[in-house]
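In response to reviewer comment 3 from the previous cycle, which asked for concrete evidence that the modeling workflow produces usable outputs, we include below a single protein chain processed end to end. The sequence was submitted unchanged, and the resulting structure tokens are shown without manual editing.
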Amino acid sequence: MLRFYAMYGQSRGFKRGRLWWVAYFDGQGHEWRESSHSPDKSVARQLLRQRLATSSRPQAVHNFEHMAALYVQDHALKGQRSREWAEDRVNNLATVFAGQRIDRMTPQDMQRFREGRLALGAAAATVNKDLGALGHRFTLAIREGWMQHKPHLERLQEADPSQGFVEHQQYLAIREHLPAPYQDALDFGYYSGWRKGEITGLTWAMVDLASGTVRLPPSGNKTRQGRVLVLSEPLR
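The workflow returned the following structure tokens.
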């Protein structure tokens, strides 16, 4: 990542894609990031000079990064899924909202985020999870007194739940095109009905070959409920 620091102390400029951004600290010790909307470094330098010359921002003003920090911390404290999952939501949302003040996030920004994620191939359900995470952050911001009202977040229409089953011949046809390690994962899924994440998260500590069972802990599945799988002969 290209950067410049000249004579600005902890403030800096950096390039994101074609455009230059600036980052600086206010009198409260909060870091602010702002796009210069220009590929010209000199424009970013001038913007940084202007921001550093102005008085500190009001203490009540907060940005996306402040909300993101609250969100990740809240997940870590409550044990909801994992810190990595929360950080993935942060990274997805940062493509549009990075550096933005929370009182300047508009419905147009939300629409731009939805369209951008869909254009990259994300499923509607995944985009809705990201928007749900953003809504959670607004709730935390209200709790902290940073804002009064939560903006409306329009959700996308999700696809109908999957229906039908893979017939045995279809399963065999898929299997023959896969490398051996992938065949193992496919076999486990076909004979167990487990989700992909449950299969790839399987460890030997969960397997009891003597009794012919696999125990999935509550933390290892979407429903947050533990269960026991009795191994069929193909799985053994």
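The chain has three domains: 3-53, 64-143, 168-230. We consider this sufficient to address the reviewer's concern, and the full set will be provided in the supplementary archive.
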